[in-house]
Amino acid sequence: MSQSTYTVQGMTCGHCVSSVTEEVGSIDGVQQVDVDLASGLVTVTSDRDLSEDDVRAAVTEAGYQLAS
Amino acid sequence: MSQSTYTVQGMTCGHCVSSVTEEVGSIDGVQQVDVDLASGLVTVTSDRDLSEDDVRAAVTEAGYQLAS
User: Potential cystine with B67: which of B7, B42, B52, B56 (Cβ 3.0-4.6 Å)?
Assistant: First the structure.
């Protein structure tokens, strides 16, 4: 089990949280996604180490940006 | 044909615009809904005069507030 935390920019409401949760949750191996809207922190629990590029692509697909 | 403009509070992003558009658009008689996110102005075109209570209920259902 692996857990990583990322900062996502641009989320403004619960719909944004849902979009990011859904896209990041669709990455192979991801088991749980927790998003804190106020801080932009996204904690991802997965059964394998994730590629940051995969997470970045999912966040971009949702319409937001991973903080570099 | 009737057109009315309302001010909706709390919309922060395009998802919010979509939610309000969908809910207000589901009111019987509504033909078009135009939302300006920056100003919160929602312009509703309908084939009959709408009850403000109906519009308020739809906006509330979407999760936002009609300015009084």
Answer: B7
Residue with tokens 């990011």: A20
Tell me the CATH number at B12.
3.30.70.100
Domain of A21, in residue numbers: 2-66
ipTM over 0.85: no
Cβ contacts of A12 on chain B, cutoff 8 Å? 12-13
- Distance from the first to the final alpha carbon of chain A: 24
Closest CA to B67 of B3, B2, B5, B1: B5
Encode pLDDT of B14-55 as tens digits.
999 999 999 999 999 999 999 999 999 999 999 999 999 999
Distance of CA A65 to the CA centre of its chain: 10
